[in-house]
Design a protein that fits this description.
It contains six helices and seven strands; from the N terminus they run βααββααβαβαββ. The chain has 214 residues and is an alpha+beta fold. Helix 2 packs parallel to helix 4 and helix 3 (80-94) packs across helix 4.
């Protein structure tokens, strides 16, 4: 990597790049039009921003190329500005039939995540609420740097137990290499490009005794 990468908090100016990264990472264009895919990515982004107490964006040459968000559950208070943006983006998506179909799928996945979390029966203190890297910058250690920045935050907050939702559309093996454990899974049949495809969804969890870390 020729140019130096910096990590900073999420800024309003990052929105467009983050929407693009989300759309490509989760392959939204495969099951809806480009316009609806962008709207769905916007819903996802603002939902994550409403569900975090920590953000770090990886930036190269003033261009955001990756992001991670985490949450201290006990200290989380939903930022009002992001909740409003989330609601506006949902309403925009609901205005078309295709948008309503897309958000129905979004809600199905959210329901699966809730069910998986209930199965854990653990009183978690934290969550990895969002993590994505531009596909052109993967394999360069950026993801590891972002993840380690979140681990430092978890340590500072004395968060011993945290979790993450993953699925077969992402590189969930990365989290297992970072010490997270795949705990529960559930399948969902999805209609993608007029074909039925089965996706699996997982919870990954991690227990950390920070006192043992030097």
């Amino acid at each position: 990597m020729k140019n130096k990468m910096i990590l900073r908090e999420f800024q309003k100016e990052d929105t467009r790049e983050m929407i693009d990264i989300i759309r490509k990472t989760w392959h939204y264009d495969e099951f809806c039009s480009h316009k609806v895919a962008n709207k769905l990515a916007k819903v996802f982004l603002y939902s994550c921003l409403a569900n975090q107490t920590y953000t770090k964006v990886a930036v190269i040459d003033n261009c955001p190329i990756g992001i991670i968000m985490g949450k201290n559950i006990a200290r989380h208070k939903c930022p009002f500005r992001y909740r409003i943006k989330q609601m506006i983006s949902i309403i925009s998506l609901l205005l078309s039939y295709e948008g309503r179909q897309a958000i129905h799928l979004f809600r199905d996945v959210d329901g699966i995540d809730r069910e998986l979390l209930d199965h854990c029966e653990i009183d978690f203190q934290g969550e990895v609420s969002f993590f994505a890297i531009d596909e052109n910058y993967r394999g360069l250690g950026i993801g590891k740097n972002l993840f380690e920045s979140l681990l430092y935050y978890m340590k500072e907050q004395n968060i011993q137990q945290f979790y993450l939702f993953t699925d077969t559309s992402c590189n969930y093996g990365f989290y297992e290499h970072q010490g997270m454990r795949r705990e529960h899974e559930k399948s969902l049949t999805m209609d993608i490009a007029n074909q039925k495809q089965v996706m699996k969804f997982f919870t990954h969890i991690r227990f950390k005794h920070w006192k043992q870390i030097i």
